[in-house]
């Protein structure tokens, strides 16, 4: 398992597109983790005397309608935007994997009931479900993360279960069972590692969609609340000033775009590396 | 092989799923903070209703009864088309939805046709010129489109096309003249995704032995592509379109907000801002119904195409 | 002498990735002649055959000259090539199930021979040809879809389609590999009646020898020797040809076949009495196994032979206690349910039967971790056990840390058998254990099974290969339509 994962990452690094994606993702993560230290200008400090200034040496990405430094806000926002993608992906993966593997291994009535529940969740389009949950919980960063996780995990549960069912028919699993290896040991040794890797690859392919979903809902004002900085929310806040200050559009849009590009490059690369 | 019982069985299964979904959607109401009766009275213009008035309405809504009964009553009303009143405007939710539906339906239909046409054209060209320049250009373009969220494309188009060159309008009336820009924004990502899927399916089918056999019998490359590869690549493509139609209704919210498109999405967004749960419920119900129906249609279309799928069911 | 239909002159073929599949091959086939091209998979025989029809992927480099019916393939215009294909030269592909477009009817597949060349397909001739090919009730069956036909019938329809325009040359690439022995013979006989010259590509020298006029033996892109079939069969010059001829399992015929079996007194390791298995499918019941009785003694190799769909696989699942029978009973050493490890399986797909992520040592010693064992060895102990066991079957050179992907198919199968033996089973169920292997590796597997039997394990060997069973089993039972006969 360990070496299998290492083989895939080595192959991913071997592709030009995969390598570009990894480097881009590393850059974005660096921004998210160390962004605050890179730019000491406080992201929330208003200075109406310097409002809507175009990019300059003092403000490389210009200032917004409150005179806040745009670069500082982009860097500060990366923590929440990139963090959201990682948290939601981890959330759906853990929830889906747990539910799917449990259902696939238990079988019988428990499985049937669980899968009916998953079908029901899947019957509601995920973005509409996310909107509804946001409407219920009210706007807020944590609430939006919860809404996105709740509206996306079911699909992973179903996928994990189908992988488990396929794996149970594999010759190596049958041989292990016939030799008298217990179910738990068989699952831990033969089934779960493969299913987890498969699912993680699918989740990475979906990461771009998750980032887009988060940015969209955030743009609708369902996520981070002012004055906190976040890319989608920044776009919504400065919408009225785009015509006079286009840099307020370009910078957050570019940041969102680049993070989706990074996710897609890595996802596609992983899929190819896995084949 | 009689297709009718099969469709019937599928529809029964679908109804069971929808019934489950209805519980989830209904549960939004009791889970929500605030008293529905109070909110309704306030929405109707009664800012400080008396306790007796609230109590009367609570009884009328059946809010004093046990939850399962409340659900059944809600379901009964919903099945008759009564989705109660908006907490914002005080108007019936059904009427509000009906007023906004045409604009969204127009947007969805144009988007759908645009996405299907673009993705099929791109996939056919890509597969026919595999690894030559048309394929490379299209793939680069596809990757770009797949990575650009629709609402960003919308903001950029508004900023750099509408404002600079005066093409289109910023505030739209939901008419056919204004539909192209928002439809384009919604189509870009979808066409990219479906195009990639169809291209992969076409390439798989071109690698299949039946394509080699067809070539060995003198069929031209285009004939192999259109008569062998395209039908065989269709089922997953149709399934993706089926999912896409349904997801469209969830996804229009953002684009409608960008283009001020007077459709269901805008309604939902304003309802969420006001935590107007009856309207949100109505929106989710519509989205779910269209999603499930589109999925069923796509399944049936795939079955018509593939005799093996028909046989498995029989 | 007439002009050759197909003539290769010093042909070298390199794929776009630089791999050279064919190296300096010269060969010619005269009208009406059947020339067999024999070699193991990857020897370049398929590449050579496809090159004759100009069907290699774009970017493939061909040096030398290939002439079909006087047309130089290496320089022909695409339009000329399309006229050649289908009209003057046809292809019969391996595995008929994949040669048909699954979405079109069989008659469309045959009619495509005309439509591809913008001709009106003659409906009556299509049906007449199918009937001539031995398709019963051709009129109705032609309107069915490929998945409703059997492999043998599909391959006959392929021949009808490929020979529609009476081509001078047919390239048949492993035309019988997906068929059982009876069907294979029928298809090859039909092929010979088509009056075309045939380039017959196969890995099975013994099968091909009966139908070909001339044979060429191919290995690693080169032709080792070439000549009249009788000549090659009787006096093979090249050591590799002799290997191919000698490889069939005849060579390992056991001497003790009729003698006293070891451990006869211990009773039966496996005893099935009147076992039935019926599946319910939408109201209809489907009898897969019908009142089968069999007994396997310790140390006995029991062969079960039968065509695909005869219920062999279902019977194996019952004997493995993976599924319960719907009728009758199975006794595993006197018990209704086998102890853990009492019955162990060996599968058809050797690579798939090992966990792709696990190193060899982990797979081999997995049975030692069974929950009924009191002492489970640690990692270091398992590594040394695995190394020692690998040594006993002559695989000492294999790194115990290797993964299945780094090993050959034959090595994987031997490791799978080692794993099974470590469970100390009383019964081994082997389902087509050699069908994915070439003759040399198959021999090693058979020897390994014979050693296990000599040590007292009962082995039930299921195969469609009658020769193999005759050669190494003490008894062979035939299975047909769910019933078992001696």
How would you explain this protein's 3D organization?
The complex is a heterotrimer of chains A (275), B (314) and C (486). Chain A is built from 10 helices and no strands. Chain A is 76% helix and 0% strand. With 275 residues, chain A is mostly helical. Chain A starts with a helix and ends with a helix. The model of chain B has no long low-confidence stretch (mean pLDDT 86). Chain C has 486 residues and is an alpha/beta fold. Chain C has helices at residues 45-52, 78-87, 96-99, 106-115, 123-132, 138-141, 151-162, 181-192, 205-209, 229-234, 239-246, 312-319, 360-364, 379-392, 409-422, 439-454, 466-472; strands spanning 6-14, 20-29, 34-38, 61-68, 71-72, 89-92, 169-173, 197-202, 214-219, 222-228, 268-281, 284-297, 301-305, 327-332, 343-346, 427-431, 458-463, 475-480, 483-485. In chain C, strands 6-7-8-3-9-10 form a 6-stranded mixed sheet. Mean pLDDT of chain C is 85; it is low at 248-265. Chains in contact: A-B, A-C, B-C. Chains A and B meet through helix 4, helix 5, helix 8 and helix 10 of A and helix 1, helix 6, helix 7, helix 10 and helix 11 of B.
What secondary-structure arrangement, pairings included, does this model have?
The complex is a heterotrimer of chains A (275), B (314) and C (486).
Chain A: H1 2-14, H2 16-38, H3 70-106, H4 108-123, H5 126-137, H6 141-168, H7 171-178, H8 183-219, H9 231-237, H10 247-274
Helix pairs in contact in A: 1-10, 2-3, 2-10, 3-4, 3-6, 3-8, 3-10, 4-6, 5-6, 6-8, 7-8, 8-9, 8-10, 9-10
Chain B: H1 3-31, H2 36-43, H3 51-61, H4 67-79, H5 93-128, H6 133-147, H7 150-165, H8 180-207, H9 209-216, H10 221-259, H11 264-273, H12 277-305, H13 307-313
Chain C: E1 6-14, E2 20-29, E3 34-38, H1 45-52, E4 61-68, E5 71-72, H2 78-87, E6 89-92, H3 96-99, H4 106-115, H5 123-132, H6 138-141, H7 151-162, E7 169-173, H8 181-192, E8 197-202, H9 205-209, E9 214-219, E10 222-228, H10 229-234, H11 239-246, E11 268-281, E12 284-297, E13 301-305, H12 312-319, E14 327-332, E15 343-346, H13 360-364, H14 379-392, H15 409-422, E16 427-431, H16 439-454, E17 458-463, H17 466-472, E18 475-480, E19 483-485
Parallel strand pairs in C: 3-8, 3-9, 6-7, 7-8, 13-17, 13-18, 15-16, 16-17
Antiparallel strand pairs in C: 1-2, 1-4, 4-5, 9-10, 11-12, 11-14, 18-19
Helix pairs in contact in C: 4-7, 7-8, 15-16
């Amino acid at each position: 398992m360990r070496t299998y994962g290492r083989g895939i990452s080595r192959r991913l690094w071997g592709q030009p597109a995969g390598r570009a994606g990894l480097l881009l993702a590393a850059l974005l993560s660096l921004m998210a983790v160390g962004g605050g230290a890179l730019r000491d200008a406080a992201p929330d400090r208003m200075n109406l005397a310097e409002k809507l200034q175009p990019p300059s040496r003092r403000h490389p990405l210009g200032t917004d309608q409150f005179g806040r430094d745009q670069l500082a806000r982009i860097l500060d926002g990366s923590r929440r935007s990139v963090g959201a993608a990682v948290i939601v992906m981890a959330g759906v993966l853990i929830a889906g994997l747990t539910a799917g593997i449990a259902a696939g291994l238990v079988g019988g009535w428990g499985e049937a009931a669980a899968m009916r529940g998953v079908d029901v969740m899947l019957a509601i389009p995920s973005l509409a479900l996310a909107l509804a949950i946001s409407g219920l919980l009210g706007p807020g960063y944590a609430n939006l993360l919860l809404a996105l996780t709740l509206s996306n995990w079911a699909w992973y549960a179903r996928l994990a279960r189908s992988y488990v069912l396929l794996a149970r028919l594999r010759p190596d699993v049958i041989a292990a069972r016939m030799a008298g290896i217990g179910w738990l040991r068989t699952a831990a040794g033969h089934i779960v590692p493969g299913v987890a890797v498969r699912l993680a690859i699918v989740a990475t392919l979906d990461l771009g969609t998750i980032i887009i979903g988060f940015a969209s809902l955030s743009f609708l004002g369902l996520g981070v609340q002012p004055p906190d900085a976040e890319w989608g929310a920044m776009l919504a806040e400065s919408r009225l000033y785009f015509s006079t200050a286009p840099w307020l559009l370009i910078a957050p849009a570019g940041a969102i775009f680049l993070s989706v590009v990074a996710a897609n490059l890595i996802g596609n690369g992983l899929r190819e590396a896995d084949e | 092989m009689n297709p009718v019982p099969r469709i019937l069985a599928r529809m029964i299964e679908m109804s069971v799923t929808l019934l489950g979904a209805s519980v989830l959607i209904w549960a939004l109401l009791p889970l929500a903070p605030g008293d529905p009766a109070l909110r309704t009275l306030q929405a109707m213009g009664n800012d400080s209703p008396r306790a007796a008035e609230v109590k009367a309405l609570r009884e009328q809504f059946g809010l004093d009864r046990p939850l399962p009964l409340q659900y059944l009553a809600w379901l009964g009303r919903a099945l008759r088309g009564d989705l109660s009143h908006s907490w914002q405007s005080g108007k019936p939710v059904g009427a509000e939805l009906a007023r906004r539906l045409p604009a969204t339906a127009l947007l969805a239909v144009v988007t759908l046709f645009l996405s299907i046409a673009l993705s099929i054209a791109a996939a056919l060209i890509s597969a026919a010129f595999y690894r030559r320049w048309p394929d490379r250009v299209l793939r680069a373009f596809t990757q770009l489109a797949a990575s650009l969220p629709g609402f960003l494309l919308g903001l950029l188009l508004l900023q750099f096309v509408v404002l600079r060159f005066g093409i289109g309008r910023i505030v739209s009336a939901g008419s056919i003249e204004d539909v192209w820009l928002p439809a384009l924004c919604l189509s870009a990502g979808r066409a990219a995704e479906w195009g990639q899927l169809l291209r992969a399916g076409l390439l798989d089918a071109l690698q299949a032995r039946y394509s080699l056999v067809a070539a060995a019998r003198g069929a031209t490359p285009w004939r192999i592509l259109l008569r062998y590869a395209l039908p065989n690549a269709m089922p997953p493509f149709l399934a993706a379109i089926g999912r896409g139609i349904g997801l469209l209704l969830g996804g229009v919210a953002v684009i409608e907000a960008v283009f001020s498109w007077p459709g269901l999405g805008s309604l939902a967004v304003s309802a969420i801002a006001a935590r107007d749960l009856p309207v949100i419920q109505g929106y989710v119900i519509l989205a779910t119904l269209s999603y499930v129906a589109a999925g069923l249609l796509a399944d049936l279309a795939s079955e018509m195409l593939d005799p093996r799928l028909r046989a498995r069911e029989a | 002498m007439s002009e050759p239909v197909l003539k290769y002159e010093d042909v070298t073929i390199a794929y776009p990735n630089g791999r050279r599949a064919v190296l300096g091959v010269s060969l010619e086939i005269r009208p009406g002649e059947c020339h067999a091209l024999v070699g193991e998979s990857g020897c370049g025989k398929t590449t050579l055959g496809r090159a004759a029809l100009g069907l290699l992927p774009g970017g493939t480099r061909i040096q030398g000259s290939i002439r079909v019916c006087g047309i130089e393939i290496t320089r022909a215009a695409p339009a000329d090539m399309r006229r050649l294909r289908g009209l003057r030269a046809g292809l019969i592909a391996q595995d008929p199930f994949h040669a048909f477009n699954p979405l079109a009817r069989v008659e469309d597949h045959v009619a495509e021979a005309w439509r591809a060349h913008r001709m009106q397909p003659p409906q009556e001739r299509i049906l007449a040809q199918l009937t001539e090919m031995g398709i019963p009730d051709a009129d109705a069956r032609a309107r069915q879809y490929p998945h409703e036909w059997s492999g043998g019938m599909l391959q006959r329809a392929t021949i009808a389609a490929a020979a529609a325009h009476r081509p001078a040359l047919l390239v048949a690439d492993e035309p019988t590999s997906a068929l059982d022995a009876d069907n294979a013979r029928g298809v090859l006989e039909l092929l010979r009646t088509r009056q075309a010259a045939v380039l017959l590509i196969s890995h099975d020298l013994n099968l091909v020898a009966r139908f070909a006029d001339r044979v060429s033996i191919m290995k690693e892109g080169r032709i080792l020797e070439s000549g009249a079939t009788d000549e090659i069969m009787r006096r093979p010059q090249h050591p590799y040809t002799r290997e191919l001829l000698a490889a069939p399992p005849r060579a390992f015929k056991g001497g003790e076949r009729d003698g006293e079996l070891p451990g006869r007194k211990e009773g039966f390791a496996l005893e099935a009495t009147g076992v039935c298995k019926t599946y319910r499918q939408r109201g209809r019941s489907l009898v897969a196994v019908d009142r089968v009785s069999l007994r396997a003694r310790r140390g006995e190799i029991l062969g079960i032979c039968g065509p695909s769909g005869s219920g062999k696989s279902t019977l194996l699942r019952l004997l493995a206690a993976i599924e319960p029978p719907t009728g009758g009973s199975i006794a595993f050493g006197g018990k209704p349910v086998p102890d853990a490890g009492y019955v162990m399986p060996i599968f058809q797909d050797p690579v798939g039967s090992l966990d792709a992520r696990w190193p060899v040592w982990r797979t081999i010693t997995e049975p030692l971790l069974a929950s009924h064992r009191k002492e489970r060895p640690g990692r270091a102990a398992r590594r040394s056990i695995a190394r020692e066991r690998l040594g006993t079957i002559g695989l000492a050179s294999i790194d115990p840390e290797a993964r299945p992907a780094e090993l050959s198919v034959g090595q994987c199968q031997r490791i799978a058998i080692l794993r099974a033996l470590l469970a100390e089973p009383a019964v081994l169920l082997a389902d087509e254990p050699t069908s994915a292997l070439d003759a040399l590796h198959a021999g090693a597997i058979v020897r390994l099974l014979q050693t296990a039997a000599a040590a007292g394990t009962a082995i039930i060997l299921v195969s469609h290969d009658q020769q193999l069973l005759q050669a190494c089993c003490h008894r062979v039972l035939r299975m047909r339509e769910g019933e078992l006969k001696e």
